[in-house]
Amino acid sequence: PDELTNALEISNIVFTSLFALEMLLKVLMRVLKLVRFMPALQRQLVVLMKTMDNVATFCMLLMLFIFIF
Prior knowledge:
It is a single chain. The protein has 2 helices and no strands. The chain is mainly alpha-helical. It folds into 2 domains: 1-37; 39-69.
């Protein structure tokens, strides 16, 4: 029964991760489908992606100054 318990625990982890991955993919595909049919949302996401580079640079500089001073 110990081997069976271990096999059940492993299969539980495998199936849980598989279903979680499936759920994430379905949500991602639904969002991408929504973006494709809404050009205003697509423009907002493009602007958001362009500003993320600036925000990341600012955060890195901020962390650098915090650790130096």
